[in-house]
Sequence to fold (268 residues):
Amino acid sequence: MSTTVPLLEAQDLAVRYPNGEIALHDVTFQINSPSFMAIIGPNGSGKSTLVKTFLGLIKPFKGSIKVNGLDATKKSGKIRKMVRYVPQRDRIELSVPMKVKDIVLMGRLLKKMPPRFASVKDVETAKEALRQVDMLDLWDRPFPELSGGQRQRVLVARALASEGSILVLDEPLAGTDVESQDLIVEALGRYHKENDVSIVMVTHDLNPIHTLVQDVLLLKNTVVGIGEPCTVMDPELITKVYGPTARIVEHSGHRYCMTRDSGIDRHD
Ligand SMILES: Nc1ncnc2c1ncn2[C@@H]1O[C@H](COP(=O)(O)OP(=O)(O)OP(=O)(O)O)[C@@H](O)[C@H]1O
Ligand SMILES: [Mg+2]
Fold:
């Protein structure tokens, strides 16, 4: 069911880093709520910057962006209460021998007032979230011992277990194999369908998720395309962003994007 307040609404947004780098300019778009949406674009196209801006972690140089009607500059505290965020590079200290369960429970406990004890419900929710990404067997394993892909799955479980009406994941599929990607994507898709939660997923590869997402925002430091995956998977838009070698391939009624990232034009 669509509500009148958009999930994201940017108006003439520009973001400049202190070194003068203009990461985003002339960004105007609207995404309706609720949505499972993807933000795509090549490296350096401003995807993470956009996320950090709407979470209020970076201030715009110009314009504004709102999350569920709340201005990211003025209401960042409220926005962060509503959002569960999985950053691109999580700064979990790997020298501390935290167990998988501690990591996932952290997602629930951090939003509580101290003293922070895990209730039976917290433990149940954490276990269910790990089950969703097929990691429950690792409940008692030290997190630093896990492979990169397993860690990603645990971090997604932590986000699923925590509370908030918007889930924001920056490149959750990075460093994962196809099996882990499928597990993560299916778990997110299920979660979006079964709960009243919007999901914003940053990815440089739309192919693993394009059958699940409703809206896609294609960035190259400004908005190049916006709409349903099939609309954005357009040869003209894709070559604008990924260069002349990018191709759209149609298969079983879906459009897939082939870029140098995905292997096309590799002769090695
Ligand atoms: N802290 C920073 N200081 C200066 N410039 C930055 C900073 N962070 C990012 N940038 C620049 O802003 C631009 C956008 O970066 P951003 O990290 O948002 O891209 P991205 O689309 O998330 O890329 P990736 O796919 O590599 O994660 C890049 O040119 C980058 O060099
Ligand atoms: Mg990024």
